[in-house]
Amino acid sequence: MRSSGKGRIALDIGGTKFAAARVAGDGTLEGVETTPTPKVGVWDACAALLGKVAGTEPVDRIGIGSAGPIDTVAGTTGPLNIAEWRNNFGIVAAVQDLFPGAEITFAIDGGCAALAEYRYGAARGVPNLLGMVVSTGIGGGIVLDGQIVRGRTGNAGHVGHIVVNNEDPCACGGVGCIEAVASGPSTVRWAQAQGWAGTTGIELSKAAATGDPIGVAALHRSGTALGQAISSAAALLDVDLVVVGGGFAQSGPLLWDPLQESLRRHAGLSFIKELRVVPAELGGLGTLTGAGALTLDS
After folding, report:
1. Do the Cβ atoms of 246 and 202 come closer than 8 Å?
2. Out of the domains of life, which is the source (predicted)?
3. pLDDT at residue number 298
4. How would you write the chain as a 3-class SS string?
5. Rounded to whole angstroms, how far apart are CA atoms 41 and 218?
6. Buried-exposed string 253-264: b where 16+ CB fall within 10 A, e elsewhere
7. Residue 214 CA to chain centroid, in angstroms?
8. Cβ of 97: how many Cβ atoms within 10 Å?
9. Is the pLDDT of residue 1 over 70?
10. Are 108 and 65 contacting, i.e. CB atoms less than 8 angstroms apart?
11. CB under 8 Å to 4, separation ≥6 — which residues?
């Protein structure tokens, strides 16, 4: 069922930035605004951003995509990369207080990104897919039969915590999660432990592109682990398309070639032998676009 209201807002809650925009009837984002995620006063920054986007116009529907873990039953978010909210923040109630009477739909960021790619991006016409975001952390989302799979608490598709080794400690409290191995910061930490002197994923990718042996090895290690995690998830979900976005996923062939090689090695079951992994098309606006799509459906 389509919403008849015109006052739609999308909100993307990320570990490094928040983004918000008005949403047109065709899902187009209008007037996108962003703000860095602060260390303290996180809600104040978020509220100010929403107020700026809303202006004086009425708001009747709000879609929220948030880094996880989340709890859609309780309406809370506890992103591992937002220390002030790590013990769960009541995001739905807080937004409701700002916009009394507005209908709020809440989903994990990876689910929103996957939905956006299905409707508007690299997965158009493919109703069964896994979406991944490889950036500061690794998130994900599942779309089956054209709908986000939410799970008991809304965290279905949180593929960043598929286990790929028994070595790297993860911020979630576990060991060997793909996020602890192949996210941008995790790859940088591994490279630094081998003697590399840089500090960021962008620097590491550039170093690898110039032939730096540690940089090449670091991207190869992360790409291989990503292929392993993706093949495991695809076998579980019975999908033949995986869309990968996020800043660190843009590291080029030195990440993607070992990813594809790893897929060929691990994706052996007949129903995933044709598994395709493609770059996301919507870039940094994927989650926000998906949050906007939530406001178009009842």
Report:
1. no
2. Bacteria
3. 55
4. CECCCCCEEEEEECCCEEEEEEECCCCCEEEEEEEECCCCCHHHHHHHHHHHHHCCCCCCEEEEEECCCEECCCCEECCCCCHHHCCCECHHHHHHHHCCCCEEEEEEHHHHHHHHHHHHCCCCCCCCEEEEEECCCEEEEEEECCEECCCCCCCCCCHHHCECCCCCECCCCCECEHHHHHCHHHHHHHHHHCCCCCCCHHHHHHHHHCCCHHHHHHHHHHHHHHHHHHHHHHHHHCCCEEEEECCHHHCCHHHHHHHHHHHHHHCCCHHHCCCEEEECCCHHHHHHHHHHHHCCEC
5. 35
6. ebbbebbbebbe
7. 27
8. 10
9. no
10. yes
11. none
Contact 260, 295 (CB under 8 A): no
Are 170 and 178 in contact by the 8 Å Cβ rule? The answer is no
What are 189-231's pLDDT values in tens digits?
Answer: 999 999 999 999 999 999 999 999 999 999 999 999 999 999 9
Handedness of CA 143, 80, 192, 188 (dihedral sign): positive
User: Which residues make beta-bridge pairs with 142?
Assistant: 130
pLDDT > 70 fraction of the chain, expressed in percent and rounded: 98
Average pLDDT, the chain: 94
pLDDT category, 137, cuts 50, 70, 90?
Answer: confident
Distance in angstroms (rounded) separating the CA atoms of residues 7 and 26: 13
- Yes or no: say if 202 and 185 are a contact pair by the CB < 8 Å rule: no
Query: How far is Cα 24 from Cα 9, in angstroms, rounded to an integer?
Result: 9
Q: What are phi and psi of 107, to 5 degrees?
A: -150, 160
Q: Which two tokens stand for residue 282?
A: 């919507």
Nearest to 251 by CA among 275, 287, 218, 228: 218
Cα 161 off chain centre by: 13
Compute and round to an integer the Cα radius of gyration of the chain: 19
pLDDT at 101: 92
Tokens of 289: 């676009």
Cβ neighbours of residue 269 under 8 Å, at least 6 residues apart?
235
